[in-house]
Amino acid sequence: MSSLTLAVRDCSTMLRRNLLHARRYPSLTLNLLLTPVMLLLLFVYIFGDVMSAGMGGADRSDYIAYVVPGILLMTIGSTVIGAAVSVATDMSEGIIARFRTMAIHRGSVLIGHVVGSVLQSVASVVLVGAVAVAIGFRSKDANALEWLAAFGLLALFALALTWIAVGMGMASPNAEAASNSAMPLILLPLVSSAFTPIEAMPGWFRPIAEYQPFTPAIETLRGLLLGTEIGNNGWLALAWCLGLAVLGYRWSASKFRQDPK
After folding, report:
1. Distance of CA 86 to the CA centre of its chain
2. How many Å apart are CA 261 and CA 92, to the nearest integer?
3. Predicted local confidence at residue 9, as pLDDT
4. DSSP for 90-132, written as a single string
């Protein structure tokens, strides 16, 4: 077999390993998925009428349309924490060191974690999206191309955050530390435009919400699904995704090449 065929085979084996782990231990994924679902229900049914009125909306349905894109991206941030925990567990238990000594494609270990996490993120987004539709979310005149672009943005964002999460897992001494270090992936959406417009925030707080990866991605997703103005947010979201993916890949690969201490 060619080297490419061997690499694909090894990557497929590692992907299957990670998917089997996720199936055998679903509690972590379910716990991480519970956070965006609870926030969606909380902000829609507890704060929905008040938030909608404050933003000039007619009823709760207006706020559902506003908040769902942010919740979908928060779902990705929550799900990829599982990748950080999984990688840190492999590191602390010594299986990564064992893989280094085996005649397998060296990148297959990380690729298996990344592809597995992206697939779990996409599945989580679909589940949260189904909950959003069930409680009243409706896209406004989005055509097939816009839906495809929205799906591509979600997948690319999941890939970028997964590489960052894998780097966090490689750099953490244990699973608990990896979980704690990845918490900003959940906290950042809370200080973005996910729940309230940036214009409604205090002036000193706006740069924190504006100059981070979640806000341009959220505004781009809103534009694709709801027809709002995207402006430069599309290019900013793409730049953030590519930059984070490259940074996470280089960080993860560097830590993987280091000899275990």
Report:
1. 15
2. 11
3. 79
4. HHHHTHHHHHHHSSS-TTHHHHHHHHHHHHHHHHHHHHHHHHH
In terms of Cβ atoms closer than 10 Å to its own Cβ (0-12, 13-18, 19+), residue 21 is middle
Nearest to 211 by CA among 185, 234, 237, 231: 237
* Alpha-carbon gap, residue 60 to 106, rounded angstroms: 51
Nearest residue to 29 via CA among 19, 39, 43: 19
User: What sign does the CA torsion over 158, 159, 163, 164 have?
Assistant: negative
Overall size of the chain counted in residues: 261
Q: What is the residue whose two structure tokens read 């201490």? A: 261
Q: 151, 145, 149, 96: which is closest to 121 by C-alpha?
A: 151
Look at 91 and 71; give whichever has higher pLDDT: 71
Could you read off the pLDDT of 98-138 as tens digits, one per residue? 777 776 777 788 888 899 889 989 989 999 999 999 988 88
Taking only the tens place, the pLDDT of each residue in 213-226 is 999 999 999 999 98
Q: Which residues contact 249 (CB under 8 A, 6 or more apart)?
A: 163
Give the model's confidence band at 55: pLDDT under 50 very low, under 70 low, under 90 confident, else very high: low
d(CA 65, CA 133) in angstroms, rounded, equals 10
Instruction: Return d(Cα 18, Cα 15) in angstroms, integer.
Output: 5
